[in-house]
Amino acid sequence: MNMKDETASAENYTAHKKDEPANPSEVVDLVVDVTKNLGSAFGREARAMAGRVSEQLSETVEAGVERGADALGSFVRAMHAAAQEVEPEAPGLARTLDDVARNVDGFADTIRGRTISELVSSAAKLARRNPTIFLAGTILAGFAVSRFVRSSAPATNTNEG
Question: Dihedral (C-alpha) 54, 58, 64, 70: value to the nearest 10 degrees?
Fold first, then answer.
């Protein structure tokens, strides 16, 4: 049977089927096939969308990490300036401020340029190695974030006038 014969045969079958009531099992099979195809297409689109969202979220977080590292750099410069200012009166405090500034600068360099998965992996390793330091760091980070959010929130006018 050639292609022309197959097409004619399919058309005859379709024309013949239009005159007959549909077989319920064929309808169920057709609905199941359509549902599977829709489910498969929906699943592919959902996975693709989740991948795009994940990629955009990672890029956003990584950009935030870079901004955070830059902000830490500003903090380090301020600490060094403060250390220089207090050195004549309190050389011990000045050394402590410089030490803290060097540690913060090292941390900023450590997080700069790393992916979110690398940062999460490092945090998980730290949590396993030293849970006390991890917990203390998490509390301090939460406090710092809450202060930052509070300070960057728009001021509300409580005076009724």
Answer: -170
